[in-house]
Amino acid sequence: MKSSNTETSSTQELIDSAYIIQDEDEYWNIIAKLHERGSKTEFEAAKKLTSESDPVKREIGADILGQLGWSKHSYQKESVSILIKLLSDSEPDVIASAAFSLGHRNDPSAIPELLKHVNHSSPRVRHGVAFGLSCHDDHSAIDGLIVLSRDTDFDVRNWATFGLGSQCDFDNDNLRQALIDRTEDSEPEIRGEALIGLARRKDVRVINKIENELTGKFNGAWPIEAASIYPVKHFKPLLVNLLESLEEEDKKAFSKEIFEAIANCENTD
What we know:
single chain; Leucine-rich Repeat Variant; elongated
């Protein structure tokens, strides 16, 4: 089924299509339509799916419950209760979908159950847990994210670092040290997320780290954003040199951010 037919399809027809669809983008187009509708019909259908013996159906149910009604958070309490129960499912993919959906629901009552899966054998489950624990200014959630920020899997480590750095306002020595550790990560995106998190907290140890990224191989806008958040005068010539060194395509893509960072650095004492 093509996504263009979702407007006229019934809820059950959409669910049936989600069950057989192979293309991930098409699958999420279908789920998004069910989210958008967000009525009792969609909630009851998803609830029923989560009790099915087929794990694929339970996973679809979890995916639907994550964002019913979008920003309206339709059936919040009921959905969170069901999703928390799904964290005890026997199938890792169902647990992962429940964890991701709980991240969208952002209910602190899920934190203790999510923490039980911090060391799960499935990287997808751990990724879901990192997503689920993000956006909570809660000591235990932060501790869980710190553990996940050291994970061997890129997606897990990356999201946990992003969660610590940018998705909460929590601040303590352990969180900062976890971000400092990630500034030495082999992956530039993870290093960049750590820079941004430290810059947001005005940690002076990040200044040299930002300098190193601005003068090294260009891997993306993360150090530029960090320099803009925590501007220092001597970043300015580094940013100017970076702009001059970029290929034309990258200049077009990143010049606005670089000029903003330069302006912020000029306005510092």
